[in-house]
Write a structure and sequence with these properties.
Layout lengths: L6 H8 L3 H15 L4 E3 L4 E3 L1 H28 L16 E4 L1 H6 L16 E2 L8 E6 L2 E6 L5 E2 L2 H9 L5 E3 L1 H10 L3 E3 L21 H17 L11
Parallel strand pairs: 4-7
Antiparallel strand pairs: 1-2, 3-8, 3-9, 5-6
Helix pairs in contact: 1-2
């Protein structure tokens, strides 16, 4: 409930009825003698006491998961859930054939300011500044366009619809490149990106985390880091 804020959503997730979820929460509230949720006809939100209990519950579940990790380490059989949070990376410039049908192909990054560029608004990056590298070093270019968003998937769709040029990681658009829906332009310029696996120190002995990191390492090496005609790893 803390994440979904909906009896129906929680019920669907665990395969129960909303009435069952409501009853279980009522029992928990009675046992703890606190109100866990604010209930109105329109929405459900967690109370301050509910937030505190949720945090304690997370600590308890993490401790249980650590115990299972240590046991699974002894058995060499990873068990439990893995939660992965990832940022969206940048890298190379892509455009749809429909856009190039109406506009000339850029020959250098100095021509990008005269094109409609689809800019992603990010908190830690200057808006509209693309820093790109080539064999001679790093260059910055100020790009603009009629459309911008802080949502990666919206920018992606706008690019597919032919509204402009975007700067994305190859793995975001790999299938679009293969199908011909997008074209990789100015391939000599790129934005480097490192992939890091960061996890809580005390879980470093976790068999499930070790197996997950090893899988991701193999996956990226096999699917994205090999030399390709339209993509090169720097």
């Amino acid at each position: 409930m803390a994440k979904r804020a909906s009896f129906v959503a929680v019920a669907e997730e665990i395969g129960a009825s909303p009435a069952f979820i409501s009853k279980r929460i009522a029992i928990l509230e009675n046992v703890l003698n606190v109100s866990l949720l604010h209930r109105t006809t329109r929405r459900v939100s967690i109370t301050e006491d509910g937030e505190r209990i949720y945090e304690w519950a997370q600590h308890i579940l993490n401790d249980v998961n650590q115990m299972l990790d240590e046991l699974s380490e002894l058995r060499q059989e990873p068990q439990g859930k893995i939660r992965i949070t990832s940022s969206f990376g940048f890298g190379r410039k892509f455009v749809a054939p429909a856009y190039l049908a109406r506009n000339p192909m850029p020959k250098s990054i100095n021509e990008l300011p005269s094109h409609a560029c689809l800019v992603i608004k990010e908190r830690d990056h200057p808006f509209g500044i693309w820093k790109l590298q080539n064999s001679t070093g790093t260059q910055s270019v100020k790009v603009t366009g009629p459309m911008s968003s802080n949502h990666v998937e919206i920018i992606h769709q706008w690019c597919l619809d032919g509204h402009g040029i975007t700067l994305r990681s190859y793995w975001d658009v790999r299938e679009n490149i293969k199908s011909g829906a997008l074209i990789h332009i100015l391939p000599e310029y790129y934005q480097p990106a490192n992939i890091w696996a960061v996890y809580v120190t005390r879980l470093a002995i976790s068999a499930r985390i070790r197996v997950t990191v090893e899988f991701l390492e193999r996956y990226f090496q096999e699917h994205y880091l090999e030399q390709k005609d339209d993509f090169q790893t720097r």
